[in-house]
């Protein structure tokens, strides 16, 4: 198990890309920062810098120096607006981007502190507020703010969605305080220390995490282990019996591992079977846990079900992250992964495929589980409207391309064909 020590140091430095063999060390944060990457220049300097980062952070941890929470440098008007937004945290049109600005980039910490209080978890589990805050700051800081998509704002957005799902009557009537705490913690930490690249990239670059987890749910395992490391380091649950904390750690793992998109069909088939047979018994802890897994999966990919103004921002962010991976693959002469080629994979086409094959099947089953609730109906309506808008944008792109073709401009594919025809 990779719970503490070295794993925590790696997560704090952001060094998640040691390649073996002929591949160089890569710090994704540095490569995403064009200014820094231009200044570094050579592989030798990168290695020296990363070694210094490891030593510096390790020495701080060994001396017991814990990173302090960032100060809230906000005036009363901003704080008042943030508090007003929290009063509507259960609304589906909650604007997490605005909330993050109002909290000076502390949306995840602020949101979780509020939700733990709203759900009575602080009192029920006798949690120390200072320790809780320190733990949440650790989680928030272990997200890479340089990532366009997989960052702390995404974690806060998923947590807010999870809160909405936990309030659905079909589920809420059976949930225990432990279920609620697990659901919120898993949502907050489900992508912690995400490097901004996907599992196939880690595997083909022979990343140490891929070897550690034998190419199975590599990122999800890392998110889980990192979370457990922070829980233990913060001692948030140290006052609880050992068997209770062990159970919490295992259930957190089960929830976070369920977000692996490669397991989508596995969960859909099981959910369909339960719904068709009407054999879900939410009085049973095992069935409740399964539905928490489904709820977290929904929360993780709920962006297409948001208002268009919010959904579009998330779509552009995730595609930007894909394109950055593609640029990285191209730079190091690797095969460009699917959806990561900015010249071929457009945002509308990516989103339409994602909605059709991943989002719609899951949310239609979720709506079948919850019944015709206002939230489920609202999400499906947004999903259909957003898909129609992406189709319209895709049609405009195709029309524009055809117009360029007719105006005498030669497209890339046409140029290739002409070159082939001219070749003897």
TrEMBL record:
Needed cofactors, names only, are: a divalent metal cation
Q: Where is the PDEase domain positioned along the sequence?
A: 74-397
The residue ranges flagged as biased composition, category Polar residues, are: 400-416
Annotated positions binding AMP: 150-154, 191, 300, 351
Keyword hit for Repeat? no
- Which top EC class is given? hydrolase
What EC number(s) does the entry state? 3.1.4.-
Annotated cofactor note: Binds 2 divalent metal cations per subunit. Site 1 may preferentially bind zinc ions, while site 2 has a preference for magnesium and/or manganese ions.
Q: Any idea which UniProt keywords this protein has?
A: cAMP, Hydrolase, Metal-binding
Q: Which residues does the annotation say bind Zn(2+) 1? A: 154, 190-191, 300
Q: Which positions are catalytic residues?
A: 150 (proton donor)
Which sites bind Zn(2+) 2? 191
User: Which reaction(s) are listed as its catalytic activity?
Assistant: 3',5'-cyclic AMP + H2O = AMP + H(+)
Spell out the residue ranges making up region: Disordered.
395-424
Q: Which family does it belong to?
A: Belongs to the cyclic nucleotide phosphodiesterase family. PDE7 subfamily.
Q: This protein is called what?
A: Phosphodiesterase
| Organism of derivation | Calypte anna (Anna's hummingbird)
Recall the taxonomic lineage recorded for the source organism. Eukaryota, Metazoa, Chordata, Craniata, Vertebrata
């Amino acid at each position: 198990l990779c719970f503490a020590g070295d794993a925590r140091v790696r997560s704090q430095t952001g060094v998640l890309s040691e390649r073996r063999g002929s591949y160089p060390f890569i710090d994704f944060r540095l490569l995403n920062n064009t200014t820094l990457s231009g200044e570094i220049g050579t592989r030798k300097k990168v290695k020296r810098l990363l070694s210094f980062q490891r030593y510096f952070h390790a020495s701080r941890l060994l001396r017991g120096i814990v990173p302090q929470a960032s100060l809230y440098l906000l005036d009363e008007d901003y704080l008042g607006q943030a508090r007003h937004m929290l009063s509507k945290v259960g609304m589906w049109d909650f604007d997490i981007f605005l909330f993050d600005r109002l909290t000076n980039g502390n949306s995840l910490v602020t949101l979780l502190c509020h939700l733990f209080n709203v759900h009575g978890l602080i009192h029920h589990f006798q949690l120390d507020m200072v320790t809780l805050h320190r733990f949440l700051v650790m989680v928030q800081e272990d997200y890479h703010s340089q990532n366009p998509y997989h960052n702390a704002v995404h974690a806060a957005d998923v947590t807010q969605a999870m809160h909405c799902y936990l309030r659905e009557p079909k589920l809420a009537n059976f949930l225990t305080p432990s279920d609620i705490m697990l659901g919120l913690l898993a949502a907050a930490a489900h992508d912690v220390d995400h490097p901004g690249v996907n599992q196939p990239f880690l595997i083909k670059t022979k990343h140490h995490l891929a070897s550690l987890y034998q190419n199975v749910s590599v990122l999800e395992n890392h998110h889980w282990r990192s979370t457990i490391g922070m829980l233990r380091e913060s001692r948030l649950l140290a006052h609880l019996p050992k068997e209770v904390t062990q159970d919490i750690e295992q259930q957190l793992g089960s929830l976070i591992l369920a977000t692996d998109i490669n397991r989508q069909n596995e969960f859909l088939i099981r959910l369909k079977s339960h719904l068709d047979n009407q054999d879900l018994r939410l009085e049973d802890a095992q069935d409740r846990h399964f539905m928490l897994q489904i709820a977290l999966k929904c929360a993780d990919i709920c962006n297409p079900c948001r208002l268009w103004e919010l959904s579009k921002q998330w779509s552009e962010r995730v595609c930007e992250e894909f394109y950055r991976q593609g640029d990285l693959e191209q730079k190091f002469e690797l095969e460009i992964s699917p959806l990561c080629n900015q010249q071929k994979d457009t945002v509308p086409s990516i989103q339409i495929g994602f909605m059709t094959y991943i989002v719609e099947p899951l949310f239609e089953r979720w709506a079948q589980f919850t019944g015709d609730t206002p939230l489920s109906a609202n999400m499906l309506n947004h999903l259909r409207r957003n898909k129609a808008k992406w189709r319209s944008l895709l049609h405009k792109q195709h029309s524009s391309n055809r117009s360029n073709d007719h105006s005498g401009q030669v497209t890339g594919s046409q140029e290739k064909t002409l070159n082939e025809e001219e070749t003897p």
